[in-house]
Hints:
By secondary structure, chain A is mainly α.
Amino acid sequence: xxxTSKLADIALLIGFAIVVAxxxxxxxxxxxxxxxxxxKFAIYGIFAIGFNILFGxxxxxxxxxxxxxxxxxxxxxxxxKLLSMxxxxxxxxxxxxxxxxxxxxxxxxxxxxxxxxxxxxxxxxQMCYNMAYSVLTPITNGETGLRVLRQDPRYLDAxxxxxxxxxxxxxxxxxxxxxxxxxxxxxxxxxxLSIAIFRSPFGMxxxxxxxNQNRMGYTGYSTRPYLLSAFVISGMFAGLAGALLAAxxxxxxxxxxxWTASGEVVLMTILGGAGTLLGPVLGTxxxxxxxxxxxxxxxxQLKAMFTFVPDGLREPVVKTLSLFVGEGWQxxxxxxxxxxxxxxxxxxxxxxxxxIGLKHTPKVRSLGDSPQRDGLGEMVIEExxxxxxxxEIEKNAAEQQARxxxx
Amino acid sequence: MADKKFIIDxxxxxxxxxxxxxxxxxPSFFIRDAWADDFCxxxxxxxxxxxxxxxxxxAYADEGMDELKAYQLAVKHLNGEGDGGMLxxxxxxxxxxxGVLGKKVTFVSGDTQTKADQARxxxxxxxxxxxxxxxxxxxxxxxxxxxxxxxxxxGVIFMAGLTHSNDTTGKDKRAYGFRHFFNAYMSxxxxxxxxxxxxxxxxxxxxxxADYTWGWTQEExxxxxxxxxxxxxxxAVRTPLGAADFSQYITPVLNSxxxxxxxxxxxxxxxxxxxxxxxxGLRDKMANGKKFEIVVPLFSELMAQGAGDAIKGIYxxxxxxxxxxxxxxxxxxxxxxxxxxTPPSQAAQTCYVQAILYADAVERAGTFxxxxxxxALEGFEFDGLGNxxxxxxxxxxxxxxxxxxxxxxxxxxxxxDLLEVKKVVPASQVTYDPSIFGGELGSKDAKACx
Lengths: 407, 450
């Protein structure tokens, strides 16, 4: 087993915070340095980090996480409509509501594992989507989407005489660069929390569940409360992301809860590297970049880009490439995803690790075999003890504690 | 003891991280005003950027792709390339065929995926990254309403494309939003008398309605218009958007005592519901001693192609049709056909016209400043863009022009000849008092992006 020092974790967090803070400068050369897209990077990054706590650690693949994102969005917009334009009540309401929904869905779904669990969560999410879309239209405004209007009551604001045209945090409007830095700060906090969970005994237990749930049962662990906690925590992360999504753009639509949105977060996590700390954020960046930048290229821009190609050749080059940009962005993304899953089953993080030789990982044939990986190397279960005895596991745990507490 | 120390350390780490993030967020207050200017995206240099925000995937993708073609054609004509299209017929015309205010028109495009969320995201990208001076497009009222309010907030003019809901220029109207397309209310007023004449005044109608802003307002407008003619409304049922199977909604119609089915559906929904209703044999049935009829208040050539034989004899309304015989329509149809090999749809026409109208208003205002451009568009009367004499009403930014009542052709010559214009209802008959829908335009002041 390998161990990472606390110092390395803090360095990772600080490094991450610096990258987020310099986001506008870093992303401008690739055409992504504008507030709306960077906000999306940060918000969906939070969503994916939360999803990774469930999928990356326990291996339970939820196919309905968008439901929590959607519920978070609706809760936030209702808070903007009824309570206050401030972000804090909205976030509180979203996180609590998403958590309650996650508790209910998790309570039922976690009775099954594997594909059955995935199907159950998918079914619940589609139910939520359909309810939002047509049954609950008085609450969700259906296809039209729920919007914040000028004439909404906002009782809290009215009581203290506070007026803000758009959602704000202590008077700072959550738009443009301010909006990005607020989302970025929350992303850094979420990332820090995710490090804490990864390193905690709780995170260790979740990994052990992924490794072999039966053994956990034999050693006297009741696994379900741990799974349910992980499910609820990741649902609350999604709720938080939903609240921020509603704050940066005060409109909640049912399509946010559709199964394609749930699938997207699965793609983000796997593309970046499930079970790694940085992977989900990287995956988010890649997918959102494709969705917003690749889909915007059109033939005229391609022609301008390929002026260096000789005249006779330019036309076929542009024609071929235009299949992959604009409306064809999903085709490119699909090809990239296939390439990553086939050659780098551990996601982009595996590629990075191999490239910089930080860690030698055995070649694996499928995602299921792949051990946990991390950017800076970490405590991983590379192999389970060949013979399981409670005493030994307890001894290991004790050792761990001792190591963790040692300065 | 040791345990405790460990926990405190971790917390300290987190606290440090949070404090660091907060400290790093501080520069944002200095960056924020980096854009401050007279107005949002003031064009510098030789080019000006238009943002074409249309669905290229999803339920309304067909309309969206046609709209994008029309926009590209409009850009060509504005820059003095191609045959000039309707710029030759528009009166009055301030444009000189050298771009807008001497600046060459370029464009950026995006895929809204027929989702309000994504439509706002692509519109934001165009405004924040590409510096678009105006946004136009949208093929669903949900998109139009969502993007319009975004544009109001940031101070960029939005020229709505295909959107038929009363709300777009009714309760959700905005000072920065303009609509050329007609609305559900006008459809109802135009269609009511034609239906009463064709099917009699003693009819009982059953509505199936797409469950979102457009469906709601169209159902309301159709009820009002037909009840004025003496019809009764038996029942109105809301159906989810994008439902592929309407049989569960269609079977109860037969025994409901209704003798007319009104389908407030659009795009693929309308194709599915109409085809299924016809397959169920509704049109061959007798009810209340009369032949059972189906009405589709809004439809287009693109939908008629999808519905095939089912559309024959069905009444509806349209904003424009390429078979109209005025000079502007034939100039546009010729120029669109030469470029793309098909006649333009009504969605293409409305989008083309919106792009031209915006450019013309800038030329007349002599500046890109949105508050001046809004003033130039408000109350503007023009002719020669395919719909006859048209007024951009200042009170709600809605265009008033003739409405076409159309019927599916019994014997089409080819796959583009599916609709027959039965009646042209003059603009004066469909004009209404802007106060009936409520809503407020809000501020027209120009402001920095944000």
